[in-house]
Amino acid sequence: MKTDMSVPAIELKNISKTFGTIVANDHVCLTVNNGEILSILGENGSGKTTLMNMISGIYFPDDGQIFINGEEVVIRSPKDAFDHKIGMIHQHFKLVDIFSAAQNIVLGLDEKGKFNLKQVESKVAEISAKYGFEIDPTKKIYEMSVSEKQTVEIIKVLYRGANILILDEPTAVLTPQETQKLFAILRRMKEDGKAIVIITHKLHEVLSLSDRVSVLRKGKYIGTVNTAETNEAELTEMMVGKKISLDIERSEPKNSVDRLVVKNLSCVNRDGVKMLDNVSFTAKSGEILGIAGIAGSGQRELLEAIAGLQHIHEGEIIYNNPKTGSQDNLKDKTPLQIRELGVRLSFVPEDRLGMGLVGNMDIIDNMMLRSYRKGKSVFLERKAPKDLAERIIDQLEVVTPSATTPVRRLSGGNVQKVLVGREIAAAPTVLMAAYPVRGLDINSSYMIYNLLNKQKENGVAVIFVGEDLDVLIELCDRILVIGSGKITGIVDGRTADKSEIGLLMTKTDGGAENE
Amino acid sequence: MSKPVKAAKEPLFHIAKRNSMIWWKAWLIRGIAIVAALIVCALIIVLLTKQNPIEVYGAMIKGSFGSERKMWTLFQNIAMLLCISLAVTPAFKMKFWNLGAEGQVLIGGLCSMVCMFNIGDRLPNALLILIMLVASILGGIIWGIIPAVFKAKWNTNESLFTLMMNYIAIQLVSFAIMVWVPSGSSVMGLVNASTNAGWLPDLFGQKYLINILIVAFLTVAMYIYLRSSKHGYELAVVGESENTARYIGIDVKKVIIRTMILSGAICGLAGFLLVSGTNHTISKDLAGGNGFTAIMVSWLAKFNPILMIITSFLIAFLQRGAGEIATSFNLNTSVADILTGVIIFFIIGCEFFINYQVKSTRSMNKEEKK
Predict the structure, then answer these.
(1) Buried b (16+ CB within 10 A) or exposed e, A193-221
(2) Are residues A155 and A33 part of one domain?
(3) pLDDT band of A5, cuts 50, 70, 90
(4) Are residues A146 and A206 in the same domain?
(5) Could you tell me if residue A514 is inside a domain?
(6) How close does chain A come to B355, measured CA to CA in Å?
(7) What is the pLDDT of residue B9?
(8) Is residue A277, in this structure, part of any structural domain at all?
(9) For A441-476, what is each residue's pLDDT tens digit?
(10) Any idea of the CA torsion for A170, A175, A181, A183, to the nearest 10 degrees?
(11) Do B241 and A354 touch (CB under 8 A)?
(12) Pair (A280, A199) in one structural domain
């Protein structure tokens, strides 16, 4: 079937979707042409993914019409979507680990005739050559890097003959170099006449890749602009609804002393794989130490080892207590023992509702997590946590019906404010935050950066694990780069540039490979 | 390429999660569910037995409240069911699926009976009862702590483990009866019928009053423990998220073992109340399935001890009523079980309508345009 270039590949008219009382999409209209890359821009919770899920058959719209190549269609399942040659690459990959790339690609396809893996592999190779993918069809998924897995997902939809590709936050897990490679492939597909939609909230990617940008805000369609005729400030304003400044004020560290000294730290996971390998660094008071690296390079293990949640194989963690002047080794200590040593360590973990907070408990009871042990009484004291909850709601502008609302009912940004607020209220000397702005809108993100900056000015040693390199470079005094559990470099945040960090992220030490 | 699906095939209904519901509306739905259940049951009665459903329902009520003796028996049944439900609740709130209440009660009862049988005539009654009480609680604790330790240390599956412990308890009781009853009969008669040694005394002339008062006290205590004590808070955190518990420095193993000690102890107490305060004998049906029914009572009340008074009343009432109609109408006992099943199905099913709303696609479109 030759695609008619004059008719839009997808046209959405007045699409609406509600979840309970939450309006995810409110009469959204959108067109995507063949041979173009359209970015859908919006903050988290603005309804981008919901909208695309309705095109790919995961949700069914409450109202509105979908036209594919000028014809009205009803898409009720992912299979319907495939029949209309629509393929979606989700943020979380849906692959079978122990299968090879080729096996995953044909999984679920019900083709007539005898199953011939060789034939599949040669067709995969053909697609790869056409668009410039680098993939070994016989390689097993569990042996693959994140970017290779993403390649498999993309080939999977191309194999099924997709002409319309939807990619949900495709660059979230990629290094700058891998992102460039992906963009080159997407441009080649565009030249081939395919319609490509990418969902993102990263402005510079929008500007460098797409032809047009459609902006959503709080479920509503705001407008579409040609990329060539716009700039970051305009897009931000469309996305947020008001002008905001995107600068982070970075002060010079004052009276820095070594607060936390990590020496030759190694950790092994349950399968005997080294997650951290001979890691040494120092976190200083009054300074923000950034940690950069591809997701899953050992960032989580590092923070959990310091917090006493990860068994330490070798090495030590020395805490210089500013009150007593003593040096305490935190190795082999439980979180409770660390606290009893007088170490004021606060930790904002990556998994907010699964580790930092209890989703089904209200804000007050979540405040109590840090403080409930106080006092000899066998009964709980709810007055102080209630005051703290109300103070945090007030100062951090947490949007919640009341302090007795279960935190899982709050939006991502408000959940994070509750967690960060509680951790800062413990008056820490070391504050560790893992991906603290993941999933947050721009306003909340900047509020979190400001809170971290304020802690730094108060003399706290801040350790910040981030994924957005632009932010790391703007916010941090020093940036530690971690790759496959090893420190591949420590750079100065004031002089570092993105490609330098990107290279360090993927650097593997020659010969020092562990078995 | 297959043909585009026709627009007419749009689904008729949407299911959407509700945010929350005003409390009286939720109770109204529950009330409607019970009425609907009674109507369905009436149909079943007419179709299967050709009896007048109103008469059958009347008999059910009479079976429970018909005489003073029947009422006291009903209250006793409620108390025992509630007691076992209170025992499993802290474990369930911790997401430790204790299916072993049956065995824990049985072992508690067996410990009481061992004391009653062997040292019943040698000690003053008050001291004997105290020893029986302690022995029962210890027995329940041992039956509860074994799966807890295995779960805490080696992460074994607690459901299977506690279930298996039930069978051990049943066999131990069968063995004890075999030893104690010289005739070889598997039924043990009243123990110490002449001396009443080890029998809980009557209070104000009521045989079951002590049982009921103990359980009433326990209900309030458990409510406070779960709601306002540090232990109750810790076990709730462990149940919701073990990772959070570890992150905040709660010793998860300790909490699991401590909570199962509590759970086992209350089951042991229930065994004591059944042997010393109610039956004065033992059989392997001592708990009578209440160890499992308690799970339903606890869940229906969403682990709230005060609400459990209502749910245990409902279930005990249904059980007694069902037994009554089986005898007075010469019905097969299965009919009574069917009716109980239908009513419980409606009660649990109505929670769906409290948590979700079902809307037809058409009416929803109209609503949005308002």
Answers:
(1) ebbbbbbbbbbebbbebbebbbbbbebbb
(2) yes
(3) low
(4) yes
(5) no
(6) 10
(7) 52
(8) yes
(9) 777 888 889 889 999 998 899 999 988 888 888 899
(10) 40
(11) yes
(12) no
Residue ranges of the domains in chain B?
Answer: 80-306
B213-251 pLDDT, tens digit per residue, is: 999 999 999 999 999 899 999 999 999 998 899 999 899
Q: Side by side, which strands form the sheet with A327-329? A: A274-284, A258-268, A314-320, A327-329
Write out pLDDT tens, residues B79-91: 999 999 999 999 9
What residues of B are in contact with residue A335 (Cβ under 8 Å)? 246-249
Q: What is the pLDDT of residue A246?
A: 66
Of B11, B230, B240, the CB nearest to A378: B230
Distance to chain B for A111, nearest Cα, Å? 13
Residue A33 lies in a domain: yes
| Domains held by chain A: number | 2
Q: What backbone torsions phi and psi does residue A252 show, to the nearest 5 degrees?
A: -75, 140
Q: At which of A181, A213, A240 does a domain end?
A: A240
Scanning every residue of chain B, which has its alpha carbon at the shortest distance from the alpha carbon of A352?
A: B244
In a domain, A266, yes or no: yes
Q: Which of B13, B22, B229, B244 to probe by mutation at the A interface, max A CB count within 10 Å?
A: B244
B1: nearest CB among A1, A60, A358: A1
Domain interval for residue A400: 258-506
Give B245 to chain A, closest Cα distance, Å: 8
Cα-Cα end-to-end distance for chain A: 51
Cβ B240–A84 below 8 Å, yes or no?
A: no
ipTM over 0.85: no
Which segment of B102-116, B141-155, B347-361 scores lowest on mean pLDDT?
B347-361
Question: What CA–CA distance (Å, rounded) separates A509 from B92?
Answer: 50
Mean pLDDT for chain A overall? 85
The pLDDT, as a whole number, for residue B131 is 92
* DSSP string covering A444-460: HHHHHHHHHHHHHHTT-
Query: Do A42 and A111 fall into the same domain?
Result: yes
Residue B369 is predicted with a pLDDT of 42
CATH number for the domain harbouring residue A467: 3.40.50.300
Q: Are residues A322 and A426 in the same domain?
A: yes
| Contact call for A73 and B246, based on CB within 8 A | no
Q: Contact B241/A71, CB-based, under 8 Å?
A: no
